[in-house]
Task: inverse folding
């Protein structure tokens, strides 16, 4: 099978080294990390060093090789102390590890989401939505886990050195043999590095493809049914899911093979050492207590060298995760992923507040000068476009498919980043259009509106606190009032994924109601009437202009009734303004307008 995977080394995206990310996460919750470190040290001593010392003392006491100052009760006391030490360390893990996973994971997700939301609204994510979800889940989980594992390795290294010291006091030559597993594990881990990166990246990408396809499939149920493509869709799903299964099994199998090598290498070396110890015992250089100490410590060292090898493998996997997350935050600062922020998971969620309209939000005039935008690696876009919109006016942008109408709207509103030009609101230059053209100043409805699998009420409000009277007023303005009468549960009707239970016209008018209830100065429609019949569209515009709200409208449309109502028409062609003016004037001077008028008649 040919693998198509994204190698992080080929991304050419600036990113913090993985170790710096871990260091910043430790700084974010230093106290919890220290508690975890102390707990790890305590539990490691109670499991791996304390028992070895007690066993040596016990066997030396039984064989008469050494005397206990306080007798057998000394051993009992140490055993009880070890039990209490384990209990205390368990409490320490509960106190530290749960918040470490929760707080650090929340911080990473918060920073990821923050910088994704800073992208221009119409700018696509670098990868599919499914892969983005995978990074929020799987990749984020790698980092807090590694922060905790760092403590295990640090304590483990200290225990290894202390164990070497204890064993060297008995036999330096045999102790030297105990270092062999460390060297072997280090060599294996270094050889396996590239394979680890490759398999992990391929596995994560394939999982993202499956997740993204499921989401797209649920959102396109109607299209699939109309095309009777159910069987083909299912076969495709089986294909990408089978690829995910193979890559995931390969990733997991490689991890297990590495673990097996680590464990077996340590076990083999332990066997060799035990043979050497057995020969030394025959010569009388080893006591039974020394033997038990070696056996126990060597097993512990074998486990710790295994952990060290696994940590190195996990570090390489984490490096893949970090680069994948930085790719999702394209052009973000280097410290964006780990920027410290307040994380409070113990109290109620903060109340969402919506800005109220003030006198400064009033629109008198909107001007765009020489707006230019081109899509990356393409000549498509708009060039050198200027327009002026007066308060209470209706401005219509028209043109053929691909002429740049939607691109103009999105560039004006900051949903696409302009290459050049400026936008002025009442004479003031707008430096951040994406954050400026929001309610209560402006509202935008795309040609294909986004609805959520929720009630009609919640799709209109999107969290706002409005009365039913206000909702019904906005739905009436959007010519949705008669539809409410025939829907199953009025405003509580569940619209399904992406509004699948509504017709195209109902979905567009629901989006229009969502826009009207926000009571903005400027409303922007991108071909809102594309799914409306002529009569419904006529009622829509009559209600808008008779509402008395003095709405300023910027609309993409090709419909004759709206063109007749327009105060100003902008004709687009090949990404530029071909001509502009009133309808009668354009029908006289613009060949493009005359052809569009004939096309609409046909």
Result:
């Amino acid at each position: 099978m040919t693998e198509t995977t994204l190698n992080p080394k080929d991304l050419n995206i600036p990113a913090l080294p993985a170790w710096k990310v871990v260091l910043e996460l430790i700084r974010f919750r230093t106290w919890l990390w220290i508690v975890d470190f102390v707990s790890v040290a305590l539990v490691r001593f109670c499991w791996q060093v304390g028992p070895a010392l007690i066993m040596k003392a016990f066997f030396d006491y039984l064989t008469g090789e050494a005397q206990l100052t306080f007798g057998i009760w000394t051993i009992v006391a140490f055993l009880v102390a070890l039990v209490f030490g384990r209990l205390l360390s368990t409490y320490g893990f509960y106190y530290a590890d749960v918040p470490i996973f929760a707080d650090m994971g929340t911080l990473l997700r918060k920073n990821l989401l923050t910088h994704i939301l800073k992208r221009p609204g119409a700018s696509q994510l670098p990868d599919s939505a499914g892969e983005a979800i995978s990074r929020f889940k799987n990749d984020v989980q790698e980092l807090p886990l590694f922060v905790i594992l760092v403590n295990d390795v640090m304590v483990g290294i200290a225990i290894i050195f202390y164990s070497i010291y204890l064993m060297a006091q008995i036999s330096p030559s045999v102790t030297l043999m105990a270092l062999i597993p460390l060297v072997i594990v280090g060599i294996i881990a270094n050889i396996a590095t590239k394979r680890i990166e490759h398999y992990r990246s391929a596995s994560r990408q394939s999982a993202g493809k499956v997740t993204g396809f499921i989401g797209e499939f649920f959102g396109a149920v109607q299209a699939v049914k109309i095309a009777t493509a159910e069987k083909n869709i299912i076969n495709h799903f089986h294909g990408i899911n089978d690829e995910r299964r193979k890559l995931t099994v390969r990733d997991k199998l490689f991890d297990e093979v590495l673990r097996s090598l680590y464990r077996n290498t340590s076990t083999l070396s332990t066997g060799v050492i035990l043979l050497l110890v057995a020969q030394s015992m025959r010569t009388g250089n080893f006591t039974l207590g020394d033997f038990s100490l070696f056996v126990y410590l060597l097993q512990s060292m074998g486990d710790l060298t295994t952990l060290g090898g696994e940590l190195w493998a996990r570090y390489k996997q984490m490096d893949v995760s970090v680069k994948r997350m930085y790719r999702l935050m394209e052009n973000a600062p280097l410290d964006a992923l780990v920027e410290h922020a307040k994380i409070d998971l113990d109290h109620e969620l903060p109340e969402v507040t919506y800005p109220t309209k003030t006198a400064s939000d009033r629109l008198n005039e909107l001007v765009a000068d020489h707006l230019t935008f081109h899509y990356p690696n393409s000549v498509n876009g708009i060039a050198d476009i200027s327009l002026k919109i007066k308060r209470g006016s209706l401005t219509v942008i028209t043109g053929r498919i691909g002429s740049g109408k939607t691109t103009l709207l999105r560039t004006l509103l900051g949903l696409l980043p302009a290459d050049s030009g400026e936008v002025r609101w009442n004479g003031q230059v707008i430096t951040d259009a994406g954050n400026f053209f929001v309610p209560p100043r402006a509202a935008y409805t795309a040609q294909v509106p986004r609805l959520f699998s929720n009630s009609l009420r919640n799709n209109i409000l999107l969290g706002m606190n409005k009365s039913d009277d206000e909702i019904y007023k906005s739905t009436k303005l959007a010519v949705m009032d008669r539809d409410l009468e025939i829907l199953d549960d009025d405003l509580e009707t569940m619209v399904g994924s992406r509004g699948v239970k509504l017709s195209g016209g109902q979905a567009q008018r629901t989006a229009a109601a969502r826009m009207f209830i926000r009571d903005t100065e400027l409303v922007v429609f991108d071909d809102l009437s594309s799914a409306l019949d002529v009569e419904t569209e006529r009622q829509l515009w009559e209600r808008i202009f008779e509402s008395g709200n003095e709405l300023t409208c910027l609309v993409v449309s090709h419909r004759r009734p709206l063109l007749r109502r327009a105060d100003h028409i902008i004709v687009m062609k090949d990404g530029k303004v071909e001509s502009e003016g009133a309808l009668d004037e354009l029908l006289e001077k613009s060949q493009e307008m005359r052809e569009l008028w004939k096309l609409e008649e046909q």
The domain at 359-601 is CATH 3.40.50.300 (Rossmann fold).
